Amino acid sequence: MKARFPFVFLLAAAVSGAFAEPAEPVNLSDAKAAVVAYVEDGRYQRDLAAVAAEAKAWIEARAGARRADERLAVVFDVDETVLSNLPVMRDEDFGYNTREWTAWIKKAQAPALAPVREVYLAARAADVAVLFLTGRKDPRDRAGTVENLRREGMGDYAALQLAPNDRQKITSRERKTAARAAWVAEGWTIIATVGDQESDLGEHAERGFKLPNPFYRIP
Question: Contact 184/204 with Cβ under 8 angstroms?
């Protein structure tokens, strides 16, 4: 009988733990302050630059080993990937307001994330096509996005696919996976995807490069 006691004790502890009150989450004000500190002390830019350097090296090496019949492409997300929305996010205290967000896009003033723009430039210098795949809405956000990319030196691309301006019950991951599959079916070899969300990466690409984003998450 003694041999059963440890098991009974562990089972009781497990059951008790399962019904225990969850710990208080991180205070929202503290979380926002931590994000601001991460940006302002240079860690965000360093982490961004590190991933961008890996992506640039891979793209250049892969382009150098291309077969004559390959149509190589890199798929980039837009927001917090090649363009930064930090100015409006800070104005809104890291909240989301559809009206302010739409007005911000129309202004076409989002600054480029310089390390990732270098990845874009490296791809084009290596004759690798750029395909932009974003959650911005079409047609609402197209004109502002086109102008913003042009202003920031990234107006040379083979495609700019925005999300339909409706309430489709489909996740960002599902939509972007389907878009990459369609591009592959058209004859593109997608050698890399570059994005700030896990949902920007995945199937139908040789490599994926996840940039830091402490601001929001999109499934």
Answer: yes
pLDDT tens-digit readout, 69-128: 999 999 999 999 999 999 999 999 999 999 999 999 999 999 999 999 999 999 999 999
| pTM: predicted TM-score of the whole model, two decimal places | 0.90
Q: Which residue pairs from 58-62 have beta carbons closer than 8 angstroms and sit at least 24 positions apart in sequence?
A: 58/191, 58/192, 58/207, 58/209, 59/119, 59/122, 59/123, 59/126, 59/128, 59/191, 59/192, 60/122, 60/126, 62/191, 62/192, 62/206
Q: How far apart are CA 105 and CA 83, in angstroms?
A: 11
**Per-residue pLDDT reduced to its tens digit, 34-64:** 999 999 999 999 999 999 999 999 999 999 9
Q: Look up the domain containing 162 and give its range.
A: 38-210
Q: How far apart (Å, rounded) are the C-alpha atoms in residues 128 and 121?
A: 10
Is 123 domain-assigned? yes
CATH of the domain at 89: 3.40.50.1000
User: Of the candidates 70, 183, 177, 74, which has an alpha carbon nearest to the alpha carbon of residue 118?
Assistant: 74
Specify which residues 75 forms β-bridges with.
Answer: 131, 193
| Residue with the two structure tokens 């058209």 | 186
- 13 domain residue, yes or no: no
**Residue where the block lists tokens 């492409």:** 73
